[in-house]
Amino acid sequence: MDKYNLETENDPVVIVISTTGTGDPPDTARKFVKRIQDTTLPPDHFAHLQYGLLADWMRICIYEGLGDSEYTFFCNGGKTVDRRLQELGAQHFYDTGLADDCVGLELVVDPWIDGLWLALREAFLLQKEKEGMSSNDDTVSSSLSAAPPDMDELNLSTEVRNLKLEDEGVRSSDVLSQKLVDIHLASSTGDTEPSLVHSVPPISQSALNIPALPPDYIEVEFQDTHGENPHPSSLISEGTAFEVSVTRAVRLTREDAIKTALLLELDIADTMFDYQPGDAFCVICPNNVSEVEELLQILGLSEKGDYFVCVKVKQGAKKKGAAIPQHIPARSTVKFILTWCLEIRAIPKKAFLRALVECTSDVGEKRRLQELCSRQGASDYTRFIRESDVCLLDLLHAFPSCKPSLNLLIEHLPKLQARSYSVSSSNLYQPGRLCFLFNIVEFPTCPARPVSRKGVCTGWLAELVAPLLHPNKNTSDAKGESPSTEKISIFVRPNNTFHLPADPSVPFMMVGPGTGISPFIGFLQHRQKLREEHTDWEFGETWLFFGCRHQDRDYLFKDELRCFLENGTLTHLKVCFSRDSSTAEVASPKYVQEVVRLYAKEVARVLLQERGYFYVCGDKKHMADGVSDAVVDILSMEMKVDKLEAMKTLAMLRETKQYLQDVWS
Question: Please, what is the average pLDDT of the chain?
Fold first, then answer.
């Protein structure tokens, strides 16, 4: 909005836009979106404009995991802009691309970029013809025509106004044919199957198209060991952080349960932290201490971990708009940067792999890294890096001759994100307290990852609260007082829609298997307190569909749910157990989506006749999609309409915020 005036822009415009939250455009695009959504704009407002749009959809929320093409709001930020520009008369010069982080952005992005150069060329030449300048614009035409057939190498003339491409493309030196390296690989291993470190024909014998080497732009100056690191909460830009005590920790699952679920209670009494049931909040967490130490050792920085470094932009840096990442302090220790600032567990992007090639001395390892970041190695990258959740440490173990510098890590590793969790309590029911529930995430060993790991945040929290879970004489003083409380930093992440109905007389249904029950405990606590304080109010019926593996191992909040039933806060509780064997002649349903189908008439009544609410929380792929399918079938059957019409009805219920999801991948 500040740099370009689209109202007068005649050159082709390329828009790249992501989607955040529940289908919203990113913060940086909101001003623009608000401007084009002005209802007073005439339908030919952008009739002069020709554009191409690439929309991507990335999993930016660690807990809620928003991101795949089946999700309701897939690429909605881009679709919103695309649809509105079309309504205002703008024309595509190139088809819209919709990229999906769940299957790999590069599967859509790379071909889209390939086609972009040809589409731009045609758009510019057509533009010049319309202006009657085709005969005397030899410079543009010859510049475009002289480019090699590979569109990656196409350089558009700098005479073309408002378009400056700094991507150097794929140089001829990057098209590699290294038969000697293939012989080296073949002699070093007898494997016939590809792996992270080993390739097989045809890729092992192919010439490779690899990305251009990203220009380095960060400079790290080692100083002394004197000074203080900033507080980790100072790195947060999303809101005010509060340091709070963990006052209670309870294991809700038995020792022999497949997953370990912990409930933590935080003391927020002396803070301004406020929340509603259904909200989420974020925990500021560090990387694993042993992983940081291991990384320091591999980088040759073990002796310098406590040294302060000054991070600057390299003088004469070629990267356009080069700047120190906002999450990197101007001055802090090496260990602080690796512990609190960088997501060392991030899946390396191809640009990072390309940069690591230059830090690798072994010729065979260098070739394999080139393959993994090449166009020809796209399937290997997906299989051995993306799908295997490989991180930097895994790569450095797999390719021991790779020795990257600290500045390279700062340039390529993303910000260590705070982890988001649903609130599992009510401030009305438990004033000054906030509870949340989580499973300790486990990453088992695999060929690309020789050691098992726990989730960054859940593993850290479990270790932090271990004294509360297993108090003993070493953690209590002589007076028998409770062990000293640990503190964590949190900040609120309000959910504008996943809340109780404003009208308490409206009925609602909740579907939350496993830890998906978390927000609904807050709902029920809140409802119970309202019932106690307002005996003259009318309250609608409440349903909860809960499921777990074993009734005696991981039935979360079993006693609390029974109490809610007995005091009338919860009207209906429907539970299923997926791994318990049944001796009944008719097998019991194993999953919540199957149980929901058993109450088709009640679901239809609550949603359609009583205009109630339907909440779903938990795993998207294996549960929420199944529940959504079940509701569609119920609507189709009860309304006596076809499936397409039922899907439209469900879409309308989503639009009116009657069907609400808080799901993660």
Answer: 86
